[in-house]
Amino acid sequence: MAGSTIEVRLEDSDEFMHPGPEDTFNESMYFNLYDPAERIGGFVRIGNRPNEGHAEVTACIYMPDGRVGFMFSRPGITGNERFDAAGASFEVIEPFASLEVRYDGRLVMLEEPLEMADPRSAFRDNPYEDATIELRYRGASDPWGGEPQGVSERAGEEFAKGHYEQLMTATGSITVGDEEFVVSGRGLRDHSWGPRTWQAPWYYRWLTVNMCDGTGMMLSRIARKDSDGIRQGFVWDGTEVLPVQTLSLSTRWSGEDRYHAHVHATFTVEHPDGRTVERDLDGEVLNLIPLRNRRDGRVTRISEGVTRWSLSSPLGNRATGDGDAPVDDTGADPALVGYGWSEYLDQIIDGAPVGIRE
Fold it and tell me: What is the mean pLDDT of each run of 10 residues along the chain (358 residues)?
């Protein structure tokens, strides 16, 4: 990846599908979006598991009134030719520049999103609405990442051989029941391929951040059970992608089930001229839904928190060409406030998340 001595390949062809002979091969794309003017956001993901005969399709919308509309399904697939399953589809119009995201299906509407900790009850006891998502995503930064060459992960710890991410703007519409929202906001998309199980990391923290001035970042902490693991990410200062050099995180938790409520990160980036710059980032979780994955007797929790971010000082040069996306309506400096997601994955041991100390 950028800033690393590891050689990474990333080409226009990587925007499309990849072969994968491994039993747990997964190819996925994910798109998130938040519109601060409409106070609505969400994400859509398709993960193809062709060698297991199914896809994983997730659609999640955080409504302005605090409800969360959610759907997850595992539709059958016979190959890995495209991202198109269970009413969701992704289309690459121009690599790294323009992509379309669609979803047409039902969402279960949760007035209490934490009910999804018990998905069977949540899907049984809550009402449903028809939903349509139609969004055009445009690249707002250079992509970061790719497929490392000559690198392999330890058996059982594979978590996507190839992986890149990119800040985006998005416009379009979200309709839930009889409510329609014309949206214009910012988000992040990622694309990954290779062997993957959600049980591979001991825990991880994935922070996606779009500042209201068009700059932004992604910060990633992946912990291993027997080592510190990985701390990495990138900053888009409006002109170039800068690799994160150091990263520390702390979390304030809430409730008996210990969901993250506030995130603090301190990180450094090195500029091409040799300057090392440190920033502090604080995230207030506005709404959160806990998702669950079970495999081979293990339980993994993935807590998805839509988050309002604040920076200690601006990231750098204001980005250009993103006039379609609104700024925050609170009057805050658009270079210091932003929105995005804090995704916390933890293995659950004896009923508790394993990464509670960080």
Answer: 65 97 96 97 98 98 98 98 98 98 98 98 98 98 90 58 96 98 98 94 97 96 91 95 97 97 97 90 98 94 98 77 62 91 97 94
Please report how many Cα atoms fall inside a 13 Å half-sphere around the Cα of residue 202, on the Cβ side: 15
Q: How many CA atoms lie within 13 A of 3 on its CB side?
A: 18
The tokens for 226 are 């027997």
Q: Which amino acid is at 139?
A: G
Residue 119 and residue 242: Cα distance in Å, rounded?
Answer: 39
Within a domain: 358: no
* Nearest-angstrom CA–CA distance, 304 and 308: 13
Q: Is residue 107 part of a domain?
A: yes
User: Rounded distance, CA 233 to CA 141, Å?
Assistant: 14
Is this prediction's pTM over 0.90? yes
**Angstrom distance (rounded) from CA 305 to CA 39:** 14
What CA dihedral angle connects 198, 188, 149 and 222, to 10 degrees?
A: -40
What range defines the domain where residue 172 resides? Answer: 8-353
Phi-psi region at 146: left, alpha or beta (left = phi > 0; alpha = psi -120 to 50): left
> Does residue 108 fall inside a structural domain?
yes
Distance of alpha carbon 140 from alpha carbon 238, whole angstroms: 9
Under a CB-based contact definition with an 8 Å cutoff, are residues 198 and 57 in contact?
no
When divided into structural domains, the chain yields a total of 1
User: Mind giving me the DSSP string for 12-55?
Assistant: GGGGS-----STTEEEEEEEEEEETTTTEEEEEEEEEETTTTEE
Note whether residue 236 is domain-resident.
Answer: yes
Tell me which residue has tokens 């004896």.
350
d(CA 300, CA 93): 35
DSSP alpha helix (H) spans, the chain: 119-125
* pLDDT at residue number 316: 78
